[in-house]
Write a structure and sequence with these properties.
This protein is of the alpha/beta class. The chain is about 40% helix and about 15% strand. It has a seven-stranded parallel sheet, with helices on both faces. Helix 3 (about 100-125) links the parallel strand 4 (about 80-85) and strand 5. Helix 1 crosses helix 6. The longest helix is centred in the middle third of the chain and has 29 residues, at about 100-125. It starts with 9 loop residues before the first strand and ends in an 8-residue tail after the last strand. It comes from [Mycobacterium] manitobense. InterPro entries: NAD(P)-bd_dom_sf, SDR_fam.
């Protein structure tokens, strides 16, 4: 086990190999956190002893506990989990396959459940609180006929609900639970030729940038009186169009 400074907090970030997750790693380092970055595969984050990469498929039973155990072994504690990993499959409802269902629920729900359950247990043992941040979508609140997304709503809607449930369950124990509900963010999953059409889905007329999401999560991390919040980072999408 690495000897950890008593003042150093530790964040676990899932889906950390690219996009929002990869940007959250240096963001949390700037906040002074050691980081456990997990994804199915990685390019290493340079030579930084305060960043541990753990290759894991969080949809697999036991993978979440493995990630948390790795954090505890290396750094001795867990203070924050950002449940960023997710799968989005846009199809008409009747065209979803059993494989689609298993893939989306595996990452979006089982992955959240396994990582968060083990992390909360560690936070309770530490007795000094902690924080979960769940990455959701504004499509839960503002469905769009142009973006058929029943599995996203099914799973991410569950994350919105459990955010409030866990926030209340653990408020007296010092563990906060929040979510960010995103619009369409400029990440590698959206080819550049689609950006103009996608921007029209937001009242502000543009895509979100990764920094918009990182700034929102940084805010929640540093807002000790905020818990049970689903913060919309969506260019006004959830308000209407």
């Amino acid at each position: 086990m690495t000897q950890q400074n008593d003042d150093t907090k530790v964040a676990i970030i899932t889906g950390a190999s690219r996009g929002i997750g990869a940007a959250l790693v240096p963001a949390y380092r700037k906040l002074g956190y050691a980081v456990v970055a997990t994804a199915r595969s990685f390019t290493e984050f340079g030579i930084d002893p305060e960043v541990l990469t753990v290759a894991a498929d969080i949809a697999a039973p036991g993978a979440g506990a493995h990630v948390v155990d790795a954090a505890l072994h290396r750094f001795g504690r867990v203070d924050t989990v950002v449940n960023n990993a997710g799968i989005f499959v846009a199809k008409p409802f009747t065209e979803y396959t059993d494989e689609d269902f298993d893939a989306v629920t595996g990452v979006n729900l089982r992955g959240f459940f396994e990582v968060s359950r083990s992390a909360v247990a560690a936070m309770l043992d530490q007795r000094d609180g902690g924080h979960l941040v769940n990455v959701s979508t504004s499509l839960v609140d503002h469905a769009n006929s142009a973006v058929p997304s029943a599995l996203a709503s099914l799973t991410k809607g569950g994350l919105n609900a459990v955010t409030k449930s866990l926030a209340v369950e653990y408020a007296a124990r010092g563990i906060r639970v929040n979510a960010v509900a995103l619009g369409i963010i400029r990440t590698p999953m959206h080819p550049p030729e689609t950006h103009a059409d996608l921007a029209r889905l937001h009242p502000v007329g543009r895509l979100g940038d990764i920094d918009d999401v990182v700034d929102a999560i940084r805010y929640l991390e540093q807002a000790p009186f905020v818990t049970g919040e689903v913060l919309h980072v969506d260019g006004g999408q959830s308000a209407g169009h």
